[in-house]
Amino acid sequence: MNSALNQAPFVLLVSGMAFEAEIAAGAQVRSICASDPEQLKQRIAAGLTPACAGILSFGTCAGLAPTLVAGSWIVGHSLWVDDEELPVDGAWSHQLLRALPGALPVGVAGSLSPITDPADKLALARRHRLGALDMESHVAARAAADAGLPFGIARVVLDGLQVRIPDCALAGIQPDGRADALAVARSLIRQPWDLPALLRLAYGAWRARQALVLGRRRMGDALAWPIEQARRAAN
Q1: Centroid of chain to Cα 165
Q2: CATH code at 84?
């Protein structure tokens, strides 16, 4: 008998940053990350096995609604890339909302590139009445649809609607999702006027990390749905 059929079911958890993947790690989770879309596609493909029960997009995001500030949880009920809507599993979204008190159900925008300017965030928010933005969910959603797997989104706001992302912050993100503090410092030397925006973003990142840790515990080992669902179906 194929040994893959005897594997315990797991959730493939997709993030953009290494610290997000580390927070999400668990016995019933295979956590991967990459900030480069092509790397992310390859890592998702490598992580898909017959034991995969679903794919969850987990980590930080940009808030596109005025009420969403750093540390706010969102659960995606829809996902848009330009004018294309990608499928999100409604039952999983419902369970995630139950596991994360105070999380706001929103439409999520999948972006192919960083949206750094508040005016651009506002323009994006007005399309399809979207509430959050990230760069990994649409990659994960397409992989889930191709594999016939449920897909969910649970993320924490790092930068609110009025927060500008400075160039030095983007310079510090490596393609594999790891942070490069030296690259941030070099960029800041060239553009020292970015320091106030960087400090504001760093505070948002601290709040987001705290919320991610707490929320991950509340979601439980099975991340609120697919593994237990798969076990019940098998029995």
Answers
A1: 17
A2: 3.40.50.1580
CA nearest to 61, candidates 122, 11, 110:
110
Which amino acid, one-letter code, is at 107?
Answer: G
Domains: count for the chain: 1
Residue 178 domain-assigned? no
Residue 185 maps to a domain: no
Give the type of residue at 10. Answer: F
What distance in Å separates the CA atoms of residue 167 and residue 184, rounded to the nearest whole number? Answer: 9
Where in the sequence is the domain holding 43, given as residue range(s)? 8-163+196-225
Q: Does residue 172 fall inside a structural domain?
A: no
Spatial CB neighbours of 228, under 8 Å, sequence gap ≥ 6: 222
69 assigned to some structural domain: yes
**Which tokens sit at 134?**
């990230």
Q: Which residues, at least 6 apart from 113, have a Cβ–Cβ distance to it below 8 Å?
A: 135
pTM listed for this prediction: 0.91
Which tokens hold the place of 100?
């994360």
- Going by C-beta distance under 8 Å and a sequence separation of 6 or more, which residues neighbour residue 159? 62, 63, 70, 165, 201, 204
Instruction: Give the pLDDT confidence of 121-176 residue by residue, as tens digits.
Output: 888 888 778 999 999 999 999 999 999 999 999 999 999 998 998 888 888 788 88
